[in-house]
Structure formats: structure tokens, C-alpha cells
């Protein structure tokens, strides 16, 4: 009975952690450009993003003004700017940060991803600018230029927008870096729990719950593409009453 209760307590803890992450995500929204629209669709978060939005100009600031106060805002911005001039963006970035501060938003900024275009060099340069400027201001910055993304067939035919799996990859990376990731696998190798006997007087067999091993981590501790781990359940045959 004690081992069974321990097993149930472990399951309850994992479920509670997952529900806590869901509750935190419930206080989140998406801001930004058309890539933000795609990410909002797969994340099922309230969408304030629109097509043709830049860092430069009033549209991003207007989205923040319409956003509810005190939420976590996933901001997808920079690609439209990279498809043009990225010179003198400092003031526009500052305007966005100040508008977010007034609304007490927690910003998670997803940087311009790699694109299959000649102007990808500007997207890379803007990514470096944002990566240097945003974290010191308390913004969680999510770069989207890792090889698994850039070389993983994530882009749609236009080389800029993404396939569904690309938006899923973007959302999964962003939510994990924002601390909204799924609970880590239980470290217990196995949990033994008693099976219910057919007859209270009969001997009680045991059933062993075997958890798949936890995912390996990178030596550098960097984020890596998630894998799915399956819980295998082996139950001993129930002992029947032979009297």
C-alpha cells in the first residue's frame, strides 16, 4: 500500500506541474507580425499579431497598448525589418520596451529566424543586435537561427513563412525558454505498486511501472528539440480463487 501511494503521489506531482505550466500559459498572448500569427495558431494563445508589422513604426506599439496589462507577451518581430533597412532601429526598439513597461508586460521576444533569401545576412545581423540589447533590459530573447530549425525543412515555399512544424518548433522553444515547458520526466527508474487481488485472502502479485529513461541533455545545457517518452505498463496476471 505504501509503494502504491508513493506511485500515485508521483503521478499527482507530475500532473500538478503540467497544470501549473498550463495556468501560466493562460496568462500569455502573442504580439508581432505574420510569423506571430502562425505561432498564435499552434499555441492557441490570444492573438494580437498582424501581417506587415515591423519593429520600426507605430503598429507594434499599438498592439502593446491594446494588450491586457500584466501578461506574458510573446513578441515575434524583426523579419519584416530585415527585408529592408535595419539601420537606426534603436529608437523603435526603445519605444516598444517603454510601451511594454507601462503595461507591466513580461516580454519574450522571438528573434528573426533564418530565411531562404538573399537578405538572410541582415536577419542574422538583426538577431545579433537584439540578442545584445534585450536581455539587459529584462527581456527573454529567443534566437531562431539554430541548425535544427534552419536546416530542418521548416520553411514554406516562399522561404520566409513557415510550415506548421516550423511554427510548432518556434512555439516549443519559446515556451521552454520562458519557463512554460512541460515537466521533466520523473527520475525514478521504476515504481512498484501492488495489484488488486481477486480474493482478499489470496497472495497479492505486484505490477511494475517502468518509465522510459529521461532525455539526454547537451553538454552545454542548451535547449534541444523535444522528444516524446512513452510510459510502458507491465501488469502481472491476477491470481484467481482456487477454492
Q: What this model shows, in words?
A:
With 243 residues, the chain is an alpha/beta fold. It contains eight helices and seven strands, in the order H-E-H-H-E-H-H-E-H-E-H-H-E-E-E. The strands form two sheets. It has a four-stranded parallel beta sheet with strand order 1-2-3-4, with helices on both faces. The chain has a three-stranded antiparallel beta sheet with strand order 5-6-7. Helix 6 links the parallel strand 3 (106-110) and strand 4 (140-142). Helix 2 (34-43) packs across helix 8. The longest helix is centred in the N-terminal third of the chain and has 25 residues, at 2-26.
Can you tell me the CATH class of the largest domain? Alpha Beta
Low-confidence stretches: 5-24, 183-217, 236-243
Overall CATH architecture of the largest domain: 3-Layer(aba) Sandwich
What's the name of the CATH homologous superfamily of the largest domain?
A: SGNH hydrolase
Percent of sequence in beta strands: 5-15%
Average pLDDT metric: 78
Q: Major sheet, described briefly? A: 4 strands, parallel
Biggest sheet strand line-up: 1-2-3-4
Summarize the model shown:
The protein is 38% helix and 14% strand. The chain is of the alpha/beta class and 243 residues long.
Write the layout of secondary structure elements.
Blueprint: H1 2-26, E1 28-32, H2 34-43, H3 59-66, E2 72-76, H4 79-82, H5 90-102, E3 106-110, H6 120-133, E4 140-142, H7 147-150, H8 164-177, E5 190-194, E6 206-211, E7 231-234
Parallel strand pairs: 1-2, 2-3, 3-4
Antiparallel strand pairs: 5-6, 6-7
Helix pairs in contact: 2-8, 3-5
